Structure of Glutathione hydrolase proenzyme:
Amino acid sequence: MKKLLLSFVLLSQFAFAQFTDINIVKEIHTKNKGLVVSAHPLASEVGAKIMKMGGNAYDAVIATQYALAVVYPQAGNIAGGGFLVGVKNSGEKFTIDFRETAPAKSFRDMYLDKKGNPNTDLSQNGHLAVGIPGSVAGFYATLKHAKLPMEKLIQPAIDLAEQGFSVTEKEASLLNTFKKDFQLHNKNTTAFQKSTLWKQGDLLIQKELAGTLKLIQKNGAKGFYEGKTAQLILDEMKRGNGIVTLNDLKNYKVVERKPLSFTYKETEIVSMPLPSSGGILLAQMLKMSNFEKVEQFQQNSTQAVQIMVEAERRSFADRAEYMGDPDFIKDQTSLLISDDYLKNRWKTFTMNRATPSSAVGKIIAQPKESTETTHISVIDKEGNAVAVTTTLNGLYGSRVVVSGGGFLLNNEMDDFSVKPGVPNMFGAVGGEANAIQPGKRMLSSMTPTIVMKNSKPYIIVGTPGGTTIPTSVYQSIVNIVDFKLSPNMAVNTPKFHHQWLPESVLVETNFPETTIKDLEKNNYKIERTSKIGRTELIIIDEDGNAVAVADGRGDDSVAVE
């Protein structure tokens, strides 16, 4: 086994703590063994240990998600939501939609002031921003594909919460950054607050969260959606004028949907359908860039980037106009990914010249915002594959921690069109298709994806990053299938992003300067950012050799069975 190991020991004054050694592993090569890639090394190790205990990929992903809710509070969660794409070694393909839903008391204009102007502070921060959580229901919906009982899968997370773990430098920095937010939105002091600044190696103990996890362990999903925990959520809503009710929690339902599947070159792409926009965007972008035979150009060359940016521009314009919860709108997926439609969409493309966004959709000014989500990719030794992306939406969600429960609530209501034409926190514009309605699932960009080759899993991929998720997954697939990059390069090479509005192309700071200058000559406005996404990738060749890569942009880590 070839392994590139980056490790560091986080020392703590609490010598009794069990989880003070954090080993970040960025790449593993193996064969006939299970692999887990996630945003945190302790969570990845939990998933790998579960497979050693006899669990399969679905056991591992459940346990990893629970562990992330403890060790990665900025995005890991039990009170958020997400999407799962699975492919079994039997060939069965399935998805689980555990996206949050709008409370029964929600209404279309709930975030508008008396003059009709949007108050995005209410949709992004505090109790009114909270959608009905889907994560715990999603974990239980996954259980029927697993082998071990939930009691075993949740225990590692309980241990991590109860005994504590050393925070990384990155997590310590974030906790310090959001200290005032926790003070503002919580009546009682949370586990994430301390009198001094957090630093690398400090122990984070979450006794209240451990208690909540034990109730789920004892009573199943009802241990979260009913009983003591549900009452704690209701009490929290009353404290902050939130609108989530006990009936909202009790009535939450997971939806199992047919995967969005399409052919690209010699592969089959299996991704998430609506209410995730990711699968549709991925199909559109791959097909449009193939019209220009993007593989004939060098990766991150001016020509390749222009083709891909223009594919992204047109796809995001369609996102704003047509996409939402398929249970509330006319689902036009088949039209949007059809060759005839996309060829017509591509007619306005001209090499060496930027297409004005006004030519593909109505221009509306929008602000720049940031994002966080988390992704897990898993393969087991039997060939079962799973890609799952979950989120609280923004960093630490609504910043509200349920008093007595110890867990963060999401701020997912901001992913609706607060007012049609007004962008959300990630700058994504939405229309009537994504307007707020009770019980409706908000449109998402999460794009958990499994690429098949010769009817077997070939690439398992996903990333956090809000609206940059579909474009990062798109680039990862093109990097491997078209540009023939190594798995490590496919993940860590500089990325770019365009989403129709704003007009600018976002590039990472280490993006090739020659390409930037050429794009600017072609009327592209360039904006720089420190990083785009954190891709978790597994590739399996025809002989069963597997390579797992954790993104170098964060504390992401690989673990092997």
Remarks:
- Confidence is low (pLDDT under 50) at residues 1-17, 365-370.
